[in-house]
Amino acid sequence: MKAAACVLFATLGFLQACTLLHKAEKPAVVAPERWLAASGSARVEREWWVGFGDPVLTRLIDEALVRNLDVRQSAARVAEARALSDAQSASALPSLDFAGVAQRSRSVHPVTGRPYLSNVAQPQIVAAYEIDVWGRIDALIVAARTDAESLTAARDAVTLSVSAGVASSYFNLLNIDAQLELAHRTLQSRERSLALMRSREAGGYGGSLESAQAEAELRATAQVIPQLERAAQRQEQALSILLARNPGAVERGKTLQGITVRGLPDAGVPSELLRRRPDVASAELQVASADARLRAARAQMLPSVQLSASIGLVYSSVLIGDPFSIWSLGGSILAPIFNGGRLRALARASTSRRDQALIEYERTVLTSFGEVETLLTAHEKLRQEMAQAELQRRALEDALRIARNRYREGYSSYLDELLAQRNLFAVEQTLLQLQAELLSDEVNLYRALGGGWEQASAHDGP
Fold first, then answer.
1. What residues contact 113, with CB distance under 8 A and at least 6 apart?
2. CA distances from 229 to 123, 127, 176, 243, 336 (A)
3. Beta-ladder partners of 106
4. pLDDT digits over 212-241, tens only?
5. Rounded distance, CA 256 to CA 241, Å?
6. Candidates 3.40.190.10, 1.20.1600.10, 3.40.50.1220, 3.40.309.10; CATH matching 11-92+135-300+341-457
7. What number is the average pLDDT over the span 28-40?
8. Span 93-131+302-335: which CATH code?
9. Which residue has the higher pLDDT, 46 or 325?
10. Mean of pLDDT values over 273-283
């Protein structure tokens, strides 16, 4: 009676486990029909940074893609995942092992009662194979292979992020250089103004107030220079870290104004982004890996079939007719009957991990759509801001020229000229900052569109 109950319990568990074996569907996210912001005509290229026209920038990015620690670490993770995938693939093949036993002993003969020496050697070859009836091993192989592909896509995402980081840091460095050059040029102008004020004061044509105001303006400009020099040093150190270099100076190529502004790249339709961005590809592959592990966990509740065979020889100094061969051939079936719900709990945990991967995939896709849309809009607005700032600069140049002429002819005080100088200096700084932001926004947009990552994917090695 008890045996019949056990068989019935095992049969019910078997049938219920069979109902759990199904292939999960591929995650689907509805993409917007179009971008709200208009895109330009520049194509998203693999080596998108070449289009900025600065050979030094190209050399720095090439160096970073070889030396950067994050890139090298992600490549090592890919190599590890590929090795684990190969190891998991080997589990589908039969195993073949060699076993050898050798023994020398001194015993008492049971008949004669006299001691004797015996030598025994038994070399043996053992083979074992598990029949993958329910696809558990195959599911684990698919999961391991998909993990390796996911980490490869993650490596491509790191490569894209590092190349974008180097480009942005380089443009920031050029911006600081341009700000520093503007500060030195403005300081020279302030020095000439101070010399003129003191000359007028000495000749009785001006007062000490104008000289003091000119000197104060000169000192204010001089304060900016060490601030910018410190900022340049900090930026060089940040760029050196990306390049995996020791702290030191970083070479420059073109000036900030000499960098080619490429314009908006063609973002295409939103659905194309799902095929371009490596982080989206990595997230989707993680869902596929979780699906495969879920199938393996469910198959774990079904019986497993093992085949085994062995063949060997026995050498003995006691037995007559040695060496003689020995062999065995057999199989076994292991069916889980009662384990306290452990296998079902593991299957539920795999289901939860699959759901987590799907949620992360949806989050990655929605984030990528929002990131591209925001950058497309911001890029266009930044161009409009630059156009207005340029018009402001021209107006302030006229205002400074008029204020200077009015002061020299005695129609206004020197304060009007000082205010015009300050305003012009501020808007020139703003223009340089906007130029750097425009370039950085283009870099971020290329990164958001997945530009450049396909080149890293083409390499088979780490």
1. none
2. 77, 72, 8, 21, 72
3. 117
4. 888 888 898 899 999 999 999 999 999 999
5. 22
6. 1.20.1600.10
7. 65
8. 2.20.200.10
9. 325
10. 85
